[in-house]
Amino acid sequence: MRTEHTRSIQTISHSTEVIDSFKDKSTDKLFCVLRLSERRDANRQLFIVTLKDDNKSDDFYIVPFAELVVRRERVKYLVSPENQYPEFGDNISFIMKRIESVVKIFIDNYKLTTTHFSMGW
Fold first, then answer.
1. Could you tell me where the beta strands, DSSP code E, fall in 16-96?
2. Residue 41 or 82, more confident
3. Ramachandran quadrant class, 113 (left: phi over 0; alpha: psi -120 to 50; beta: rest)
4. CA triplet 48, 21, 96: central angle to 5 degrees?
5. Are strands 29-36 and 16-24 parallel, antiparallel or unpaired?
6. Nearest residue to 5 via CA among 100, 69, 84
7. Where does the source fall among the domains of life (predicted)?
8. Could you list the residue range(s) of the whole structural domain that residue 24 is in?
9. Are strands 63-71 and 46-51 parallel, antiparallel or unpaired?
10. Whether 97 contacts 88, CB under 8 Å
11. How many domains does the chain contain in total?
12. Which of 22-26, 50-54, 70-74 is the most confident on average?
């Protein structure tokens, strides 16, 4: 197994950066969208979504919700929350669309900034 595919607590807490977070009103949960900061290529970005205000989450316990990549301009779930969180019911599709929107906005902005810097500006 290659190291880049490992998602340990240490990886999530020390090798990611928050790109956005949002509170879902139906579930009253705070979702935090993180990016694996070691990846520089816009086509190889990895995103991890965690639940921040879950009754189990604290500084020593991270609750993962989903894991995503962008391939050919499409968001793909590596770890999808649909089966793992049935308690969210019909609201899960809204949450997933919101996550996908956050990721797409980040990728669009990231491509702009990396293209800008690669031109020598």
1. 16-24, 29-36, 46-51, 63-71, 74-79
2. 82
3. alpha
4. 60
5. antiparallel
6. 69
7. Bacteria
8. 3-118
9. antiparallel
10. no
11. 1
12. 22-26
